[in-house]
Design brief:
homodimer; 6 strands; 16 helices; six-stranded parallel β-sheet; alpha/beta
Chain lengths: ~350, ~350
């Protein structure tokens, strides 16, 4: 399934992009004056192969899993919160529920590795790879087979839509994401590790030491996503990477969220570099590793609002801007239609 | 009318702000993890005096006027475009129309000084102070009486609502705004002058020279808004300042747009410093004077999208973020309600 998905990812459609840019240049505004909204409209045209792209059908995916490395005491919250928050997503009370309702996005909650048994629920996709990863300070987080299974869980979760957001929940997952990013971009752990949900100085020092120790132990090949994921990954990180690949294969723009989602984008990009033009970076968080991780992918975030919640909240928050880009290219009048004089020679 | 409006502007409600912050701290997310959205919710609570603020009733004001200084050849577009774009606003084809529809904001178009005669239209407020300003390179742009009349036109245009955006259209108005900002913050014209709708190097050099010449001629008192407005202002800049003051007097949050709107905010703040906490800076544009002007007011923009269109487009684009802040504090579940464990000791 993974190989078949990778094979379907192609380049953006340059003809549709040029047509979108031509139309933007005829609309009643100085050329280029809508800035990044114009670039977004052109990107969406290239992805969808439509000069007038549409993003009406929207979905937000939240992949949820537990992390064995929490045994090292790297988080401010107990592991039980992962399953409790999953229940909160299903009850509609979390931040992502509020923002998905506002953005008219269907919320898809996927259990890819919560430790606790989750009750059946019509809104929950159950694609558990295992009951949490192993503690990667001592042993690889998962087998290579489980890394593939996590990615394929993300691919299988993806449904046809016109705009997708990818987010996560998993106590301990900033530790896993920081380890992946440190290894992938060749940065020391202290440069890309942050305070996650809000840890104190003692836990912060321990978190960095844990990552350093794990990276020294596993010596994963940073060019090999499966090696990285197996060593220090999380099931939800693999699944997010899979969902991104599935979106690109279906020619759907996929909005990434915070630091953990961006770590997953790096994993996806090393499975297939062609996925990157399908990604939209929604925001840059307060996690110190987020900015270098985005820069590594060549992505510039749309928002900078000091968010650090995850769940896909930043991604869905940016849907309004993406929607605006689409509406402008569809609905604005041209200079001719409005009988407005063009620029002086 | 101006004095009466200024007298009604009071400080934010600290009790409502503290209540909003307390509620945010009980919601199912790490404290502070919604970043600037939390600060927005608290600000809205302080403005409206309601711990659970609402922004359902929204309006976007576009003030339109012409500028005598266009005779110096400082713009890429002919003056006629001001009236033509006003007609485009009334026909629904401009960028602000599209974005106001998306944001469910009522669009209020106000002629405060277009040179051409505008036909009557149910959506057009006619509050023309004069047919364009005079060319401020040779003579003050307007009399002190007209400066007051422009501000009062903005005050009179304001209607009760829960969230207001203030924007403008007027060929030549980046020249006026740059002159105001240069004088107000004590910066040389070359530091705060940009390429507006997209002028070439020759026009750009002329634009800076025009501003330098005007500032040397008028020597306006930068602490006196009426002196600044009369010397180098525009009717729409005065009207925007008036609308901001009226919003603050009515305890309504008012979202400022680009460089010209921010110049108006400086004018308003020098009539009444207490207006500033009622302002929300929507975005920072590519005009080089915008960032220092915002910093001068102590405002941090929500968006940085290389916009340079005006009309209130950036302001209305940010409504989705402000809406999100309101929805989150209203709709999210608390830790108790969702039975989610709180942070470890």
């Amino acid at each position: 399934m993974l190989a078949e998905t990778l094979a379907r990812i192609g380049p953006l459609d340059r003809v549709a992009m040029a047509a979108a840019q031509s139309r933007l240049d005829t609309l009643t505004k100085p050329r280029g004056s809508l800035g990044r909204l114009e670039a977004l409209a052109v990107q969406l045209a290239g992805i969808s192969r439509r000069p007038l792209p549409s993003v009406e059908k929207r979905a937000a995916y939240v992949f949820v899993a537990d992390h064995g490395v929490t045994a090292e005491g790297v988080s401010a919250y107990p592991s039980e919160v992962t399953g409790q928050m999953l229940a909160n997503f299903l009850a509609g009370g979390a931040a992502i529920n509020v923002l998905a309702r506002q953005a008219r996005a269907k919320l898809v909650v996927v259990d890819v590795g919560v430790s606790a048994e989750m009750p059946e629920h019509p809104q929950l996709l159950s694609r558990k790879v295992a009951r949490g990863t192993r503690n990667f300070v001592y042993t690889p987080a998962m087998t290579r087979e489980h890394a593939v299974a996590a990615i394929e869980a993300g691919i299988a979760s993806f449904e046809p839509c016109q705009l997708a957001a990818v987010g996560e929940m998993g106590i301990g997952n900033t530790t896993s994401a920081a380890a992946i990013v440190a290894a992938a971009i060749g940065a020391p752990a202290c440069d890309v590790t942050g305070r996650g949900t809000g840890i104190d100085d003692a836990i912060f020092a321990r978190k960095i030491a844990v990552i350093d120790k794990a990276l020294a132990l596993h010596r994963a090949d940073p060019s090999d996503s499966l090696s990285l994921l197996s060593a220090v990954g999380g099931f939800e990180i693999g699944a997010m990477a899979g969902a991104m690949l599935a979106a690109a294969a279906a020619r759907v723009p996929v909005v990434i969220d915070g630091f953990i989602s961006t770590a997953a984008a790096i994993v996806a990009s090393r499975l297939c570099a062609d996925v990157v033009p399908y990604l939209i970076a929604s925001h840059v968080s307060t996690e110190p590793g987020h900015r270098p991780a985005l820069a590594h992918l060549g992505l510039r975030p749309l928002l900078d609002l000091d968010l650090r919640l995850g769940e896909g909240t930043g991604a869905v928050l940016s849907f309004g801007l993406i929607d605006a880009a689409c509406r402008l290219i569809h609905e604005m009048a041209t200079f001719d239609e409005a009988r407005v004089a063009e620029k002086l020679r």
